[in-house]
Description:
This protein is 36% helix and 24% strand. By secondary structure, it is an alpha/beta fold.
Amino acid sequence: MDDVIVVGAGPAGNAAALGLASQGLAVTVIDSRRVIGDKLCTGIIGSECVRRFPIDPALIYHQAGAALLVMPQGGALRFEAPAPLASVVDRVAYVDSFARQAQAAGARYILGQRVVQAQVDASGVTLWAGNSGEESYRARSLVLAAGFGSPLSRQLGLGSVPDHVVGAQATVSTDNIHDVEVHLGQQVAPGFFSWVVPTRPGQALAGLLARRQAPERLDAFIQTLRQQGKITGVVQAPACWGIPLRPLKRTYRDRVLVVGDTAGQVKPITGGGIYYSLMSGELAASTLGAALAGDDLSASRLSQYQDRWQALLAAELDVGYCARRMYELLNDQQVGFLLRSALGAGARSQLAEGGISFDWHGRVISRLLGHPALSGVMHLLSPLLCRLAAQTSFQPPAMSDQETAPSLGAAGHPSAES
Length: 418
Ligand SMILES: Cc1cc2nc3c(=O)[nH]c(=O)nc-3n(C[C@H](O)[C@H](O)[C@H](O)COP(=O)(O)OP(=O)(O)OC[C@H]3O[C@@H](n4cnc5c(N)ncnc54)[C@H](O)[C@@H]3O)c2cc1C
């Protein structure tokens, strides 16, 4: 019997498998895909992720130090950081590189097999895979890393993530786009954003996040990009997939740990989850490795994994989710005001000096909200901050008494756009 079966060979599953196999444990990874890592994703990772989980430089399309923010009511702001903040990478090859390392450490990979059922008993975990569950596998423990919306999480009594958004993306042809572009506004992606990210020469990924009608909105966005002469055609048709915005309440039970998108370990502002999945996969491997060595796979022993990932990520996920929900309540005029204030001369240089993290948004949000130039924004947001603070552990920063922002309606909702 294996020590561990890992379901899912994405960033989370591969990082867990690598950590576990490196401890000399018997690990099997099962994935329904035949091509590891070939999941809908833009492949942007922050510089900190590149340092902690190195990538073959040949897999980096380009480093992104600048971004063009296309504003809701027209015009654009170009933001340039003193050093590259992120890299646009070949996501499939990057994720596969961790599977190769795990295999070199002794992990066995079974591809093209969908796990359809999981059951925990007193001495182990049984999994059934294949169209009608004709293959069965047994191990002492399970790492569930099956990505967004896995029914296995519900089957195991751990529920599903409480909030999510839909990501839609297509590969487009272009010879005209050199910066990462982020487009904002109710027309394009209400409450979220759309993007054009150059990748290989002559190609880019165009996508957006939306709670509703993501495919229709992406079609309209692509149409607009064509009309503007930014892109020339669609190379690979649009596809959609879910992105969690809140984590599971419980990411462990006896013999089982849940990691990555299945657990909801994703940055709620951008929907980026590769880095958090890799880190959580590592944490799962070290907790589970120690539990296997001590032959204590009880829920209370494995709860240490949740303590550890929450110590690392929970505040970040909480602040990010609060900021996200507030942003969703703003109208285009307010979004424009917020961004112009945030990227105005004073705040911009302070941010640049203090360092902007692609991966730790809570710090950036706190620094922005504490900046004197944004006191008007604080007044704009104050009713929402107070409401959200009451619902979560988020502590709104202190405000000054200037007032320059577009006003919110009586109930704290944005006033209708003029
Ligand atoms: C449009 C879009 C763009 C994105 N862009 C970025 C980005 O630029 N940067 C970033 O950091 N994040 C991005 N993300 C999020 C990122 O892709 C995920 O957070 C990340 O892949 C999560 O890793 P994971 O290992 O948890 O899950 P996944 O990468 O989804 O891997 C899960 C694996 O489990 C397998 N699986 C599922 N169910 C079963 C089953 N029953 N049996 C066997 N195998 C199974 C799947 O085949 C898959 O290979 C994006 C997401 C979307 C939708």
